[in-house]
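Appendix B, record 7
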Amino acid sequence: MRAALGLGLLLLAPIAHAEEAPAADAPTVRVVPLTQARDDTRLQAYLNQALAANPALDARNADVQASDADLLAARAQQWPQLSLNARYTHADGGRTIDIPTGQLLNPVYDTLNQYLEERGEPPQFPNISDQRIKFLRSHEQETKLTLNAPLIDVSLWANVDAKRALAGASRADREAYARSLVRELKRAYYGAVEAQAAVGILEASLAVLVENVRVSQALVDAGKATRDRVLRAEAERLDTVQQLDAARARAAQSKRLLNMLRAQPDDAPLELPTPAELPLPPSRDDDDIRTRPELRALDDNLLASQASERAARGASLPTLGIAADYGIQGEEYHFNDDAQFDTVSLVLRWQLWDAGTRRAQRRSARAQSAGLLSQREDLQRRLVLARRAAREDLDTARRAIDTGRARLEAAEEGFRIAERKRDAAALSQIEFLDAERTLREARLQLAINRCDALDRAAELELANASYALPATLTAP
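Structure tokens (predicted):
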């Protein structure tokens, strides 16, 4: 009997490495040896998987690519544009002009012919008809190369500045999501470790309670206890069975969440350490405080809004450009001096009145800038408060680990004493079950405290933006 109880105590050891018998839909979990868990390389591998394959992060990458393409398009508008334009026209009807050539020249020709006849020579000047000339040719073509180049256009320059700022904001948004992804994956990871530890502790506790039912029945059979002792032991066992079932469900859910964040199938295998194997977080994480990407995104959006305001003001100024054409035209396609033509023009455009459109655009841009400034001030204060709260929570969580250790030591010693008294029939059933429950809760609480401390450290890491993301996610 004592050997069985000793086995139960061994299963309750804080650094137990027993595997959980997974539920039907739970991922397979392999416990990591202590030598592998000290550096938490498995967590880093999961983070690398998430940062490389998370679909939501891929969407942010696509947004960055789109903003870069918009910037290239805005820059391209500052360069000359060359186009080929061809036109072939067939026309019927249209306006005409009548020229009285016959009325003007035929009397002269008649006089000349009469003079020639008097000299005995044949007439040489025939009569001609009046001419009707169409303004539109019946068919014609024009083929030309057109070059347009802006020389002075404030709106174009401001548009490039706005697109550049928006591209920076898109990168900052991507970095902000990447840091949030790291935070969420660490929360899921430590939650899975905690849930897995709870399953192991409850399984070990269940083994002790099963043995307690057997011992209680033996005492009843020996006439040293009444039947209520067995019933009380069985009720406690069933309560633990219910807790274990809930813990297994939580463990399966936390593992599925972890697999989802790292873009893996729900039932992908996981390697999880025990809470005792997790390295404790440092007491402070204030040596590496960086500007939060959320602030940089607001700053870039503010620059874009200011550039939009400059573009609205620039629309009130004249623009100057150059336009050049070279090509051929005529009724047929001929490449000769008569068909070729070229033109070069300076084009000035100044919009003098637009019914208040540009004024409204300037007001809108100024209002957006003012709103972004207010948002930045509010976000700055919120981030300072979040950093302070995360630092305080981490300090509290670290102290809770020390308290949990002391509580566990007391609970273990109390259970050993209760066990000896129980075997000697010198302890009531309620007192023994209370000692076992106290030990179980102490083990669970210490596991929770360790995981919570690491979770608080991850929160402070997010508040300080101190996690070392890949350079591809932090490039300006």
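Remarks on this record: The two ends are 68 Å apart (CA to CA). Residues 2-76+153-316+357-474 form a domain with the Outer membrane efflux proteins (OEP) fold (CATH 1.20.1600.10).
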